[in-house]
What we know:
Elements: H1 7-26, E1 30-39, E2 42-47, E3 53-57, E4 61-65, E5 89-94, H2 98-101, E6 103-112, E7 115-125, E8 132-140, E9 155-160, E10 163-172, E11 191-196, E12 217-220, E13 225-230, E14 236-240, E15 247-250, E16 289-291, E17 297-302, E18 316-320, E19 326-333, E20 336-345, E21 353-358, E22 364-368, E23 373-380
Antiparallel strand pairs: 1-23, 2-3, 3-4, 5-6, 6-7, 7-8, 9-10, 10-11, 11-12, 13-14, 14-15, 15-16, 17-18, 18-19, 19-20, 21-22, 22-23
Amino acid sequence: MKKKSPAPVRKALAAILLIVLSAISNAQTVRPEVVASGLQHPWAVAFLPEGRFLVTERVGLLRVIEPNGNVREPVKGLPAAAVGGQGGLLDLLLDADFSRNRTLFFCFSEAGAGGNGTALARASLSDDLKQLENVQVIFRQVPKVNSSAHFGCRIVESQAGGRPDGRLFLTLGERYQRKEDAQKLDNHLGKVVRINKDGSVPPDNPFVGQPGALPEIWSYGHRNPQGATQTPSGTLWIHEHGPQGGDEINLPQAGQNYGWPVVTFGENYGGGKIGEGLTAKPGMAAPLHYWVPSIAPSGMAFLTSERYGPTWVGNLFVGSLKFGYLDRIELSQPFSGKVVNEHSLSASEGERVRDVRQGPDGLLYILTDQARGRLIRLLPSSPGF
């Protein structure tokens, strides 16, 4: 009869096996599969029923993509976007109850007195997927600025207790020329705002009733947030572009000041400190994580599925415009904690990654921001997943 190994030896072997399996799972990579191509600077993707996709193009077009990759003619009924520079038709979000109410939200750069600014609209998508109906702008960033940069413009449907609560978060850039306004509460520049789905202001917003403060503001001191998502429990996460260095991940809390441009880990383009060159100051929230040099982040999603193995669950995924990769970010705990490791995934063949989302099938999808951009599905490359 074969003699059993002593218990301590068995425990040691089990621990070694666990480490090996974890390493194999963490070494999992992805295999890009092009779903559709020829898109004009695509900016955001949403998932329609029956395997279809809805994609915004920064040039001001909204398109349905069939499961076989066929790109349909543009959806009609969009308001005119101020297309130019970083402006145009930007983020897109389907209502949590879209299958019943056909409601969606989108943000875009809107022209007006003084220049342009980020606007948020709601609409209904017709049953034949050809027309937007009942289009209504429910929020306008003020003031409008004569600039073609830093619109921000990511939309998140907020949650309470893991369920949608009827409110929306919208990230807003400081429009580049007006960075000092990110510290002021009488404008929407460099802010995260929180509104109801009809555009009204939730009564529990942090600055409601404060003289001189706009009631939509949730947090301030942001630069140009182009990524936003939330954990399954409803915690909002964003990232924002720094100047030359100093891209940040932040968890915007009600009423908090995130420092820009008083504190930053970046510097002026071409060199030189910004302001006093501070990286911290009392009363200003420190970022959870920052990048030096910048990766130029865009798009942001948590992975909740096990399609790529169990150790990827709770990882954060961020696109890099500058380096053309997908950043897989390991946290000290799933969906929370500190950043403990980063992995650059070759998901886009070096093209600028503008958006990243988890699809209904549990797989990750990215958009590449090119003149002929692509929608790419990321398949697990290792067998068994």
